[in-house]
Amino acid sequence: MIDNSRGWGGAEQMLLSLSAGMRSKGHDVAVFLREGAATLEPFRREGFAVRQVPREGLGVFAGLWRLLRAARRERFDLVHVHRNHDLLVSKLAAAAAGAPLLLTQHCLLGTMSARHVGLADRIVTVSRFIGEDMESRYPSLAGRIETIHNGIDLAPFEHPRPGYWGEVPAVAGAFPLLGVVGYFYKNQEELIRRLPRIREKLPRAMLAIIGRDDANRGELERAARACGAADAVHFAGNIPHAEIGDAMAGLDLNVSAFRREGCALNVIESLAVGTPFVGYRAGSYPELVVDGETGMLADSPEDFVRIVVELAGRPERMAEMRRKAREDARARFDVRRMVDRYEELYRNLDD
């Protein structure tokens, strides 16, 4: 497994889950991560002997040499890279090992040549949204792309602890309590701008912004003040993964105004604890959410506001959505299903 990420998010959590799942099936998993990255500690806690690869300065060349030497010495059966940024390095490692190269693409591609993307022998996208975009831009990849949705370990989400937000005075008495999860480039500003319209009908509505992004928080705070919603926005900061199920279960709705989501783990996690999702009919959301059953998808900002107001006033429908959300998460997004599909693909590539 090769990953060049600096930070920690859904793609990195998926990589850890996949690596642990493969190890539990008896496969030897070698993990190469960026030197000094936030990914190192979570993998180490799970017992992986992580190989750090320098990605800056002259250390890049020494890191590449160590990677190629390990690939040649250990003769990996497969090299699996996560994100297109590392395709060239990973292709060299695959060639040194005499192994096929698999790319998992977690987000929309930026500007890249078809020849570069085509370095991978096979490509997995975490949603059809990403796969269809790649196929439309690079027709030569047709037949080499398949979709495997992300999965999660459902066990920690089986019995969430009630009352999580009751311990947070800033949101005391909020209804509905809306929550949005992720780095602050994911259009949280639009959600803030919708709050005044929502509060015309639901004056106790609040938005909990989960995550930490110091570089962009000031912009969101200014947006909240500008539209008169500063008292309706709570910056919850990072929530430990061990508590995220409790936090998601305590929300009335998990919401997002982002339109280019690859395959959001937070949506899957909220469904697993029975919290319906409301977002736009865009990105991967139509693949993750059964519209009208496990959540609702909007076609416009006005539609978004209408849906939130309508659901808040229909507790029976919300209760039914919660039940169906839990059922659907167990049927479609169990991490074991994801691992099984990757294992099948690994075997096919190795044949």
Attribute tags:
seven-stranded parallel sheet, Rossmann fold, 351 residues, 2 domains, 14 helices
Please give a structural write-up.
The strands form two sheets. Strands 3-2-1-4-5-6-7 form a seven-stranded parallel β-sheet, sandwiched between helices. Strands 10-9-8-11-12-13 form a six-stranded parallel β-sheet, with helices on both faces. The protein folds into two domains: 2-151 and 335-350, Glycogen Phosphorylase B (Rossmann fold), CATH 3.40.50; 155-332, Glycogen Phosphorylase B (Rossmann fold, 3-Layer(aba) Sandwich). With 351 residues, it is α/β, with parallel strands linked by helices. The chain is elongated and about 65 Å long. The protein has helices spanning 10-24, 40-45, 59-74, 87-97, 114-117, 128-137, 188-201, 214-226, 241-249, 265-272, 285-288, 301-312, 315-332, 335-350; strands at residues 2-3, 32-34, 51-53, 79-82, 101-105, 122-125, 145-147, 177-181, 206-210, 233-237, 253-255, 277-280, 295-298. The mean pLDDT is 95.
Kindly estimate the percentage of residues that lie in beta strands according to DSSP: 5-15%
Helix content: 40-55%
Number of helices: 14
What ranges have pLDDT less than 50 throughout 5 or more consecutive residues?
Answer: none
Q: How many individual β-strands?
A: 13
CATH homologous superfamily name of the largest domain?
Answer: Glycogen Phosphorylase B
Q: And the CATH topology of the largest domain?
A: Rossmann fold
CATH architecture of the largest domain: 3-Layer(aba) Sandwich
* Principal-axes shape call: elongated
